[in-house]
Amino acid sequence: MNAAAAPLLIYTGDGKGKTTAALGLAVAAAACGRRAVVVQFQKGGGYSGELFAQVHLPALTIRQFGHGCAIAARIKSGEATCRKCGECFRANRDPANPYAARALAYAAGALQDERPAVLVLDEISHALRRGLLNPGQVIALIGSRSPETTVVLTGRHMPDELIALADQVTYCRAVKHPMKDLHIDARRGVEY
């Protein structure tokens, strides 16, 4: 990578915090008036807390590309919680659905049209691992960015080809987590 170019960052590993770290970078950029675009792969619930941030930060755009939830409006309002039916996970993994390709196309358009200071490709490793995208497509996208755009990739099991390209790789490792260790369900405003 050219030393003058903005870095490629990766947050991967089996622990929590990958999306949170990437969103923190995007929010910091947007709070400073710099354009930040977050493209969420295989997420489509429409009720996660980060979506509320873009209302307060005009320089921040968050777009989800994944299967929606039938009760998303009720979850968003706090009237209901996720039923853990698994429908969204099954639909997002189905290669017949165009979500991953649409997300990648949106990211490519954002790079060209908006030239963001930060572009986050959240959970992109899942689309790669499931064969919905291939690493070459992501490498081409990264190569098409302007030298001023920091790209952030998140998700477990990031492919080695992308790790080799990165300027910074952070591995999030689970040591303790209340959902697993204390059997506390996902909390609105904390986990989603």
The number of E-state strands comes to: 6
What pattern of helices and strands is seen along the backbone? EHEHEHHHEHHEHEH
The overall average pLDDT, rounded, is 90
| Low confidence ranges | none
Helix content range of the residues, please? Answer: 25-40%
**Rg estimate, integer Å:** 16 Å
So, the CATH homologous superfamily?
A: P-loop containing nucleotide triphosphate hydrolases
Helical/strand content category: alpha/beta
Pfam families: CobA_CobO_BtuR (PF02572)
InterPro entries: CblAdoTrfase_CobA, P-loop_NTPase
Organism: Anaeroselena agilis
Protein name: Cob(I)yrinic acid a,c-diamide adenosyltransferase
Can you describe what's shown?
It comes from Anaeroselena agilis. This protein has 192 residues and is α/β, with parallel strands linked by helices. The chain is 39% helix and 16% strand. It is built from nine helices and six strands. The protein has helices spanning 18-31, 50-56, 72-77, 87-93, 99-113, 124-129, 135-143, 160-165, 178-181; strands spanning 8-12, 36-41, 60-65, 118-122, 150-154, 168-171. It has a six-stranded parallel sheet with strand order 3-2-4-5-1-6, sandwiched between helices. The longest helix has 15 residues, at 99-113.
Give the structure's gist in a few sentences.
With 192 residues, the protein is α/β, with parallel strands linked by helices. It has nine helices and six strands, in the order βαβαβαααβααβαβα.
Q: What are the SSEs and their pairings?
A:
Layout: E1 8-12, H1 18-31, E2 36-41, H2 50-56, E3 60-65, H3 72-77, H4 87-93, H5 99-113, E4 118-122, H6 124-129, H7 135-143, E5 150-154, H8 160-165, E6 168-171, H9 178-181
Parallel strand pairs: 1-5, 1-6, 2-3, 2-4, 4-5
